[in-house]
Amino acid sequence: MLTLHVVICFIALLAGALVLIALCGGRRQPTWKAVLLLSTALICLTGFPLASPPGTPTPDPARILGVMELVIVAIAALALYVGHLASVWRGIYIVAIVLAVYFNVFVAVAQAFLKIGFLHALAPTGKEPPFLIAQLLTLALFVVIGVTALKRNRGHTGNGMISRAASGIGHQ
Fold first, then answer.
1. Contact by Cβ (8 Å): 119, 127
2. Alpha-helical segments (H) within the chain
3. Residue-wise pLDDT tens digits, 137-158
4. pTM: predicted TM-score of the whole model, two decimal places
């Protein structure tokens, strides 16, 4: 189960990077959006049965994050597939996607500090300055990505046909 979970994590990280790059460029990536939503949900679902490390507080922070991420993915899917990114749904989708990918990267950074020797030596408990700096830089990066994506997608609709119809393009 752990191997499957890790493979899904890598797929979600790749899909997240591609979707965020597209969002920041004002482009659409429908296939990668679906892959991101599905793989992120699967990360949570395959993570729940994994054993918590010894000494993990109760309730388990990883499971709390998993539940939060499932809710965020559900909101993003609702905005995308029900709201069709129209009007307020576009902003909701962007915020939800940026949050979902941020949470995936947050966990990847935490796992890197646990599993990669030289990083673990810098922050063995995850409370040392190198770990906190890495997580703060990650947060700052995602704030910039979110603001950029919101600015680049202002005025776009989820449906290109609506945009063309509203601007009069294609109507002779």
1. no
2. 2-24, 30-47, 61-77, 88-115, 117-122, 129-152, 160-167
3. 999 999 999 999 999 998 655 4
4. 0.87
